Request: fold
Amino acid sequence: MPLFIIEREFAEQLDVDDDQVRSIEGINDDLDVRWIYSFLSADRKKTYCLYEATSAELVYEAARRANLPSNVVMEVTPLYGQVPA
Reply:
């Protein structure tokens, strides 16, 4: 399945609770989008998240439904090594 990186830029520092995570996971499941891994910037205002999905449009749609920013979504290919499971 194709891999995508999504860059999200937040106006305030990111602080997500367990209920919000479960809600986002439910939206992703509904769209067959699978979150793999995320990185958080040192200032806690940007995330870079790795997803599996059949298209970039589904990644954007999941972000829209979760009311999350989606500044950039790009398809990526692993250069070497293993994709985290």
